[in-house]
Amino acid sequence: MPRAPLGMVRLMQTDPSTRGQWGSRLGFILAAAGSAVGLGNIWRFPYVTGENGGGAFVLIYIACTVVFGLAVMWAELAVGRATQQSPVSAFGALAPGSLWKLVGYLGVVTGAGILSFYGVVAGWTVGYLLYAVGGDLSTGDPGALFGRFVERWELQVTYLVVFMGLTLLVILGGVRSGIERLTKILMPALVVLLLGLIVNGLFQPKAADGLSFYLMPDFSKVTGMTFMYALGQAFFSLSLGMGAMLTYGSYLKKDDGIAAAGAYVVLFDTAIALLAGLMIFPMLGGKPAAGGPGLVFVVLTKQFQTMPAGQWIAILFFALLAVAALTSTVSLLEVVTSSMVDEWKFRRRPAALLATLGITLLGVPSALSLGGVPWLTRIYTVGGKPQGFLDLMNFIFGNIALAVGALLLCLFVTLRWGIGPAVSELCQGGAWFGRVALPFRIAVTWLCPAAVIGLLLYMVITGQSLG
Ligand code: TRP
């Protein structure tokens, strides 16, 4: 098979012998990092940190990433590469005729659920990019501007449709390897821009207050829910718990060092999230008053208003953020599409079209739940703050379903496939993994299941099922 320079080749073929493979391990790392780095890092991490007390949350988040994120990343890559299949078929292949296949189905449903609200927020990046181009961000109160923007449901639905359309184009258009090549340039550009904005933010008058909120842990307000959010955020940010990394791992070659590749992705993704926090909190100059999903958009707009060449920087920033979001939405749609192809024998084009249509429809209530339609905007409250349909989807699919998915994956590896075969898969192409096999085993067998089961029980017992 000819080697493609980067990217997945002939993804549409499901016969393992002709199924695509990454041209190089770097191609995989770029695509996996493209999946991982997205709105989860720049939009979700700062606002979840803001809502969960700052520094203490950051520490718990880092711990979750190191202990659970890395282990689940390795487990997913191992299952993916061992089977060379997409999630549903992968479980079917390692445990034929069993109910484990349902774990794959759960992943597909979770992916669709996440993409439905993720697409709405990704639409904001396009909306803000257009605002920036038109100069609409340059004056006025950023908070009010954001409120008016998300309230206009016709805009929200339009941008959702636009973003889902872009995602579909990438999945169908065969421009994926182009996008991955672009990622090689755009991701470093995003990092450079983040660094520049951090430096700028550190010179703001109240930067020290923001920094201390972000970096000085105050454990007095930490509850079980803080852990639940940190764990959910770790899985969300790393694209774990629903088979996305499993799918990407399935395109790796047998002699690729998957353990090291996975570790790079974890490191890179976590670094970007921490940088995003370092950008936002000094700019904000304290703890967020209202916080909420608008945090990053509001704080950045305010900053751009005071910066020299702020309009240009805003354009650059939202454009890069839109691309980062696009590489993530592509990975979500890819899992749904490839499962429909592998499992239900769809052809790739109708599968992708149908999935896009269904997920976009599912996203509409989220798009309407930001003020556009009152009852969708206030479905329940958490700590006195009204939560809408988007918040609900975010919590159910972006936290709970991912944690459950990761739990089931760990149970699958421990109880059915065996930790031995998983370790030997991970040692292939990287014998050093043998030295961390024991901690890996402990994390997958004990720590991860105990943490997820413990947190789910805690939520049921304390009745905090919605946060
Ligand atoms: N990790 C991406 C982000 O941080 C979002 C994402 C892409 C994702 N694919 C996923 C989350 C699969 C969970 C599962 O923006």
Q: How would you describe this structure to a colleague?
A:
This protein has helices at about 25-35, 40-50, 55-85, 85-95, 100-135, 140-150, 155-175, 175-200, 205-215, 225-235, 245-250, 260-285, 295-305, 310-345, 350-365, 375, 390-415, 420-425, 435-460; strands at about 380, 385. The chain is mostly helical and about 475 residues long. Strand 1 (about 380) and strand 2 (about 385) form a beta hairpin. The protein is globular. Mean pLDDT is about 90; it is low at about 1-20. Tryptophan binds near residues 38, 39, 41, 236 and 332.
Using brief descriptors, characterize the structure shown.
disordered N terminus, two-stranded antiparallel ribbon, binds tryptophan, 74% helix, mainly alpha, single chain, 2 strands, 467 residues
What is the topological layout?
Elements: H1 25-36, H2 39-51, H3 55-83, H4 87-94, H5 101-134, H6 142-151, H7 153-173, H8 176-202, H9 207-215, H10 224-237, H11 244-249, H12 258-284, H13 295-306, H14 310-344, H15 348-367, H16 374-377, E1 380-382, E2 385-387, H17 389-417, H18 419-427, H19 437-462
Antiparallel strand pairs: 1-2
Helix pairs in contact: 1-8, 1-12, 1-14, 2-10, 2-12, 3-10, 3-12, 3-17, 3-18, 3-19, 4-5, 5-7, 5-14, 5-15, 5-17, 6-13, 7-14, 7-15, 8-12, 8-14, 9-12, 10-17, 10-19, 13-14, 14-15, 15-17, 17-18, 17-19
This protein binds tryptophan.
